[in-house]
Amino acid sequence: MLREENALREIYQVLLQPIEKFVVGAKELLIVPHKELFEVPWAALIDAGGRYLIERHVIRVSPSLRVARQAAENKDCDPTPRHVLVVGNPWPNCEGALEGAEKQANSVACKLIKVKLEVRILVAQNATKTPMKNALQSAGWAHFACHGNKITDCPVLVEPADHDNGDISNPNLSMIEVQDGVLLRRGATVVLSACNTGRGKIKAEGVVGLSRGFLRARAAATLVTLWGK
Asked: Within this chain, do residues 87 and 144 fall inside the same structural domain, yes or no?
């Protein structure tokens, strides 16, 4: 753990310490990385005082300036979602069950129900791609608690059996499917509580992965991870 903390301190010293005086007092930081800097866990960087960057600022990382502008335009809509989709521990799948994911999904759903939001929850064997894509239509918030595929950067959903209706060869949700076929409510928030959901192919226009797909599908923000097993 000490090795990782030292690395986070060193990265902070190189990337942020030289401009520290310009962000003093800023509530939010919008970071648009370049190339390999998309791999940096910005929120976890540690300053000279031992504080994580996320303790000082709200951190927003955008794939590109164009995506940041589009997300800002979407953010201006009514923030109250018409309905919320919660997905937890899709099973069976090629990765195996994910301990704690179904419990997380049920906990999130209970909290949202208490504030009188309409919740559509898909857990275990019910979390297949077709009903999940249908529930995403016009959703104002989506929460995925599941495995993330580190090769395809997709949330891992249930693999349908031979006799079930479903795409056995492609059971997971891809970025292309999201941006081409999923129409979220404008200004939606998507939480991808799964491994590697912040990763993707780094191109001239920034990182292209699942988070960008949801932003293209009218989400205003996505919560993603760079790390995984």
From this structure: yes
pLDDT tens by residue, 102-145:
999 999 999 999 999 999 999 999 999 999 999 998 899 999 99
Q: What pTM does this model have?
A: 0.82
The pLDDT of residue 59 is 93
Whether the CB-CB separation of 221 and 57 falls below 8 Å is answered with: no
Tokens 């960008």 map to which residue? Answer: 212
- Are 62 and 33 in contact, with CB atoms under 8 Å apart? no
Distance CA 75, CA 73 (A): 5
User: What is the Cα 9 distance to its own chain's centre?
Assistant: 25
Distance CA 213, CA 228 (A): 20
Question: Higher model confidence: residue 183 or residue 117?
Answer: 117
Report the CATH number at residue 146.
3.40.50
| Average pLDDT for 190-208 | 81
For 155, phi then psi, to 5°, come to -70, 135
Q: Which residue range(s) make up the domain with 117?
A: 83-223
Q: Looking at the structure, do residues 53 and 94 belong to the same domain, yes or no?
A: no
One domain, residues 47 and 122: no
Residues 96 and 192 in one domain: yes
- Whole-angstrom distance, CA of residue 11 vs CA of residue 59: 16
> How many domains, the chain?
2
70 or 84: which leads in pLDDT: 84
